[in-house]
Specification:
The complex is a heterotrimer of chains A (316), B (417) and C (423). Chain A has 16 helices and two strands. By secondary structure, chain A is mainly alpha-helical. Helices cover 40% and strands 20% of the residues of chain B. Chain B has two domains: 184 residues, Response regulator (Rossmann fold), CATH 3.40.50; 147 residues, Response regulator (Rossmann fold, 3-Layer(aba) Sandwich), CATH 3.40.50.2300. Chain B is of the alpha/beta class. Chain C is mainly alpha-helical. Chain C has two domains: 294 residues, ABC transporter involved in vitamin B12 uptake, BtuC (Orthogonal Bundle), CATH 1.10.3470; 108 residues, no CATH class. Chain C has 17 helices and four strands. In chain C, helix 2 packs across helix 11. The two termini of chain C are 25 Å apart. Classes of the chains: A mainly alpha (316), B alpha/beta (417), C mainly alpha (423). The interface between B and C is large, with 61 and 61 residues.
């Protein structure tokens, strides 16, 4: 029991931090620009492929620096020449613009790297078990993942809350005219923010690429789970996103460890219900079976009962 | 409103212009309906390449009954509905031989469409050659005269697998982990019932389902497997669900034997190498490159020279086309109504080893020797082919004879008069 | 009489056009595609009831399409098994009922808020329903889905709906009825209040209409029509599977509505026809169709955010005052330059695609039936010239067109004023 508790908690925290790593850029862009960036997963994929390409030529560590910079630059270019134009047509248009972008990036990646997965490996310097708990190894790379996520969280929080830049950026969202009049280039601020968001996605890609599968459909397979993180945490709240990542990670991991089902729970009642063929499906589903779709249930419930999310300050 | 209709009419005019049915009599058209774009394309493209390779080879030798083989690819985006539109398109363009494989959902749609089409349009028969959809319903309750299957269906594969496990005394505790959809469930259910009968001493220590391609972190599942004390895991997982599963196993240091059906699919070998699980992952197949059989290996070499990054993944496509051409020659006609009877009961020396297989007349299921192969470092002298540039490859572990793959069918086929 | 024609004329014309189309395009594929267009017109119009008219951006609209289809398939199988004398033509009502009921059920949950919260709830619900569909295998038929045979139902006036032509007419009839119903709905006070809620929910609340109730009604009705579309899909394909209620289908309908034009009634119709045509035809021409699709979409959002219908609508005052001749030459020029640009772009894309994704087929290829070698410099140079030159020309022509349009519009307005003062 202790073993399951310990291992599930550890796995949950690790998975939660991976989620936060992937979602941090999305939160940044949303909280500071108000844009729901559907192409976020595509930037994440670009990061993974750039990281792969650099790591096989130079090494993993240069890739961790260069790939996010490259993707950040691409993000800034997209903001400057695409998104900015669309901005005046409203949020729906912005969202649809990034939606179109996902097709283009996916096809571009397919053309350059093909459709098969590439062999993106964990760097040798991190390819060893960090520690063993209950005869289960925990690789050093996963610890590195965890530390990076926490570091990103700390730095972002610091920049947003404690620095002048953070203040200006936040002000630019709510009062762009006023910030502009104070002599700040609002357009450039937005461009920078979008670049940082894309760059953060790429950091996640460089790190998650070797741990997961680096393939041209990885953006699509990631699905809308990151939106769940951002929305559950509270749109635009960094702390909320961090908390939501942890919550989802733990929820999912503990659900997998459970074998409970309605049939087991309501044992004596089940025979009558089992006669209904359609009900039998619901009856016998275990919690473990539905674990990966629990976050979506959480999303719907949160939005119904607490629309501003865990730590959001405003609704939508 | 009127503008909408003008626009519609214009669109349709453009549309009509693209649909020019060209019915050339000197070619035999094979319509390949599989995913050629998006996520599924990585495997769909491999099948098309193989078909084109075979067609080029046959055409260089003068074709079949004096006619050239033409392979036309139709992208179905892995959707049954799009597939039906594409099959209709292929039929309009004069195709009477439809080849499809990926996705049992798509296979079921094609099988039922072709059967209905032939019933509603007598005299213009269309045949469906299936090289990879393996849901048992295709050759059991839903079986059709116009459908022929070359891949062993789930029941046959599991019959072979459990016959293999029967002789493995070291297997004591088996854990099942599968994707939560019909294929995963039929793997799990059948393994449980067959093992109970063949090896009652084996304990099933876990029977897990997880949603299809929704899991990014398999560590909790691995923790569960580890806690169960299993020595063997049987999984029907494919694609990302397989790759992430073995990588998580490698990370946590889980040492078990893996019995799989799709470990060799794109990305699988890379993942096994990354997870560093040598000689622990087994795959049940109808053939692989390192079987010591020269005619097959020669073809593989020519093929690799042309398609460097896309390996031969479907030896059965060679069986399928070989038997198709033989049937056309015997019937001296490319009309499915004439050559389909020749395919029934046909015996054929399989591509992978030259050993004989046969098409069972009762349900149009091809029976062939199956192989248990294992993935690991190669003996360079005898095993020349690695996978995905990993340096590792599939090595023979056991051959399962045709008789050990036998599984009865419930098919009651409606035959045309 | 004149009144009757001006009210119903367009519908009569539509009915005649729909009846005659199979005479023009009779091939199996054309019939299938037109049937597809018919159901997609209903589907995208139902989506526009949300997005265009009530301002609700839903990411899970395919849920109702899919559920409508599944209930229809089960209804067909039950009717066939029970030998009930229910003709196929009324079976889509089962889909409509399913859409209505689930629209009300899920609408009750999701329409409490508008804006982003609504979008995200629909996203979550869409994922939940699509995932559950794979788990609840008895109702949704697992991976294979549920198949049916439409000819097993009782024939109506000797029609058994086996041939695609008969199915086309069935879909066309349902399409006309649904489109007319949805059009009528926009003319009712309810339709106007939807617009008010879209534009300013506070003000709508002030004049006594609860925005939440309006959103709920709109959502439910939209579910009903999406259910009809799904039911028609089930009849057409005789198969329904979980993919039909997933994210891909929800995304497709957003594309259709947006490309056609949000907010106008004709927009989603144009979008449904165009996108369906592209979906059927584009993948034959190139396997990089997703790239073209993405570029088309980005281009539309950037340059024509009002959609094709909006673009056409803008020409209306010019047409009315006979000023169109002033702009047509500029449009033609821009179109020509645009085509040149597209030719250059797609030449480059196709050559790159051949060298990367299809390296095994060798560098020799054909573009627009012109044979070329993708490794030689000349075609790349041509592509670059076409792309850059065409692009430059297009931008200039577009600017000139805009100026010409402004001038012509001013002239039209002046002419209109002159008419009015004369009268």
């Amino acid at each position: 029991m202790l073993e399951i508790l310990f291992i599930s908690t550890l796995n949950g925290v690790l998975y939660g931090m991976l989620l936060f790593l992937m979602a941090s850029g999305l939160t940044v862009i949303f909280s500071m620009m108000g844009v729901l960036n559907f192409a976020h997963a595509s930037f994440y994929m670009l990061g993974a492929f750039f990281g792969f390409e650099i790591s096989r030529r130079i090494g993993f560590w240069p890739g961790l620096v260069v790939a996010p910079l490259l993707v950040g630059a691409i993000g800034m270019a997209i903001e400057r020449y695409g998104l900015r134009r669309v901005h005046r047509h409203g949020h729906v248009a912005e969202l649809l613009f990034t939606f179109g972008l996902t097709f283009v990036i996916q096809e571009g990646v397919e053309m350059v790297w093909g459709k098969l997965p590439v062999d993106y490996r964990v760097p040798p310097s991190l390819d060893f078990p960090a520690f063993t708990a209950f005869s289960t190894n925990y690789p050093a790379f996963k610890m590195f993942e965890l530390l990076t996520a926490i570091a990103i969280f700390a730095v972002l929080l610091l920049v947003v809350r404690r620095t002048r830049i953070g203040l200006i950026v936040q002000a630019a969202l709510t009062h762009p005219g006023m910030v502009g009049m104070l002599g700040h280039n609002v357009d450039r601020i937005f461009m920078l923010v979008f670049g940082v968001g894309a760059g953060l996605a790429a950091v996640a890609g460089v790190i998650a690429g070797p741990a997961l599968v680096t393939q041209s459909n990885m953006a699509g397979l990631l699905g809308p789970i990151l939106f769940v993180v951002v929305v559950v945490g509270g749109l635009g709240s960094l702390g909320g996103a961090f908390l939501a990542s942890l919550l989802i990670g733990l929820l999912q991991t503990f659900a997998v460890a459970s074998n409970a089902s309605l049939a087991g729970l309501l044992g004596p009642l089940s025979p009558s219900a089992k006669q209904q063929v359609f009900l039998a499906d619901i009856w016998n589903v275990t919690v473990a079976q539905v674990a990966p779709i629990l976050p979506y249930l959480l999303l719907v419930l949160i939005l119904i009962f607490r629309p501003r999310g865990l730590m959001g300050r405003r609704e939508s | 409103m009127t503008k909408a209709f003008v626009a519609g009419a214009l669109a349709l005019c453009a549309f009509g212009a693209t649909v020019v049915p060209a019915l050339a009599d000197d070619t035999i058209k094979i319509g390949y309906v599989d995913p050629l774009s998006g996520g599924g394309a990585s495997i769909g493209q491999i099948g098309l390449n193989q078909l084109k390779f075979i067609a080029d080879d046959v055409n260089a030798k003068g074709g079949v009954i004096g006619k050239k083989i033409e392979v036309i690819g139709y992208d179905n985006k892995l959707s049954p509905q799009v597939t039906l539109v594409q099959v209709q398109k292929a039929i309009d363009e004069g195709v009477q031989i439809i080849v499809q494989g990926n996705g049992s959902a798509v296979g079921a749609a094609v099988e039922s469409f072709v059967a209905k089409y032939n019933e509603r349009n007598p005299g213009k028969a269309v045949v469906y050659l299936n090289y990879a959809a393996i849901d048992p319903s295709l050759t059991n309750q839903n079986c059709s005269y116009w459908h022929f299957a070359w891949d062993a269906n789930v029941d046959i594969k599991l019959e072979a697998l459990t016959n293999f496990i029967k002789s493995k005394q070291e297997v004591k505790k088996v854990y099942l982990i599968d994707q939560d959809y019909s294929f995963g469930h039929s793997v799990a259910d059948t393994v449980v019932s067959m093992l109970k009968e063949k090896r009652p001493d084996i304990q099933i220590v876990g029977n897990e389902f997880h949603p299809l391609v929704k899991v990014t972190d398999f560590s909790p599942y691995i923790a569960k497997i580890k806690a169960s004390g299993a020595d063997t895991v049987v999984t029907g997982n494919w694609g990302q669900d397989f790759a992430l599963l073995v990588k998580a196993a490698g990370d946590s240091g889980l040492k078990v034997n893996w019995y799989t059906f799709y470990a060799g699919g794109s990305g699988g070998p890379t993942a096994i190498k990354q997870a560093n699980l040598p000689d622990q992952v087994y795959q049940l197949v109808e053939g692989f490159n390192n079987i010591d059989y020269k005619p097959m290996q020669d073809v593989v070499r020519t093929y690799i020279a042309r398609y460097k990054s896309e390996p031969i993944y479907y030896p059965r496509i060679f069986n399928m086309t070989g038997m198709l051409f033989k049937a056309i020659q015997e019937a001296n006609s490319a009309d499915p109504a004439k050559f389909a009877p020749k395919l029934e009961d046909m015996k054929y020396a399989t591509f992978a080893s030259g050993d004989e297989g046969f098409m069972r007349k009762k349900d149009h299921q091809f029976f062939q020797p199956l192989y248990m192969s294992v993935f690991g470092a190669l003996d360079a002298a005898k095993q020349p082919f690695d996978e995905e540039g990993t340096g590792w490859g599939w090595k023979p572990s056991a051959q399962i004879a045709v008789k050990d793959t036998d599984h009865p069918t419930t098919c009651e086929m409606k035959r045309p008069n | 009489m004149k009144n009757f024609l001006s009210t119903f004329g367009v519908w009569i014309v539509a009915a005649i056009v729909a009846a005659c189309l199979p005479q023009l395009f009779g091939s199996g594929l054309a019939l299938t595609s037109m049937s597809l267009m018919g159901m997609m017109i209903i589907f995208s119009l139902s989506y526009n009831m949300l997005l265009g008219q009530t301002g609700l951006l839903s990411f899970g609209h395919a849920v109702f399409f899919g559920l409508g289809g599944f209930f229809c398939v089960h209804a067909m199988n039950d009717v066939a098994a029970g030998k009930l004398p229910v003709p196929l033509i009324v079976v889509p009502l089962a889909g409509a009922a399913a859409g209505l009921v689930f629209g009300a059920l899920l609408g009750w949950v999701s329409t409490r808020r508008g804006g982003t919260a609504f979008s995200m709830i629909t996203l979550g619900i869409g994922e939940l329903v699509a995932s559950s569909a794979l788990i609840l295998r008895h109702f949704f038929g697992g991976e294979e889905g549920v198949t049916t045979n439409r000819t097993d139902l009782a024939p109506l006036f000797g029609l058994n709906f086996g041939p695609q032509l008969q199915v086309y007419y069935l879909i066309a009839a349902w399409c006309l009825v649904s489109v007319a119903a949805m059009y009528a709905l926009t003319r009712t006070p309810f339709g106007r209040i939807c617009n008010a809620v879209r534009d300013n929910p506070e003000r709508a609340a002030f004049i006594g209409y609860d925005p939440q109730a309006v959103r709920f009604l709109s959502f439910t009705l939209s579910g009903l029509f999406a259910g009809i579309a799904g039911a028609l899909a089930a009849i057409n394909f005789e198969i329904m599977n979980a993919g039909q209620l997933g994210a891909a289908q929800s995304g497709a309908v957003i594309l259709m509505v947006f490309i056609g034009g949000v907010g106008t009634f004709a927009g989603p119709i144009i979008g449904a026809i165009l996108v369906t045509y592209l979906q059927v035809a584009l993948s034959d021409v190139t396997d990089a169709w997703q790239l073209y699709f993405g570029l088309l979409f980005i281009g539309m959002v950037m340059f024509v955010p009002e959609g094709i219908a909006g673009l056409l609508l803008r020409q209306q005052p010019l047409l009315r005052e006979r000023q169109l001749h002033r702009v047509v030459p500029f449009y033609a020029l821009a179109l020509l330059a645009g085509l040149v640009t597209i030719a250059g772009l797609s030449l480059a894309i196709e050559m790159a695609n051949r060298l990367t994704a299809h390296a095994g087929d060798g560098p020799k290829m054909a573009f627009l039936h012109v044979p070329l070698n993708a490794t030689s410099v000349l075609p790349w140079a041509i592509a670059a010239v076409l792309l850059v030159g065409g692009g430059w020309l297009f931008l200039r022509a577009a600017r000139a067109s805009r100026n010409a349009y402004d001038t012509a519009l001013a002239a039209s307005l002046a002419a209109a004023l002159a008419h009015r003062s004369n009268a």
